[in-house]
Amino acid sequence: MKADQDFKLIPVVVLTTSSSPEDVNKAYQHSASSFISKPSDFSAFVDSLHTLEDYWFRVSRLPSIE
Q: How does 6-45 read in b/e, with b if 16+ C-beta sit within 10 Å?
């Protein structure tokens, strides 16, 4: 996705059950914007999604797509 000029500014968030350092490194080597390990507890997972939403839509400033 990052190699395509039309999509390179779109953040790529890896949401996975893995917490392996190798998987984290591989994700960032392939231009991931963020790596999130999903909690096994559903309530904690929902909390993580709210935090993700807050970060990307309220805290982070993204470039305008022109």
A: eeeeeeeebeeeeeeeeebeebeeeebeebbeeeeeeeee
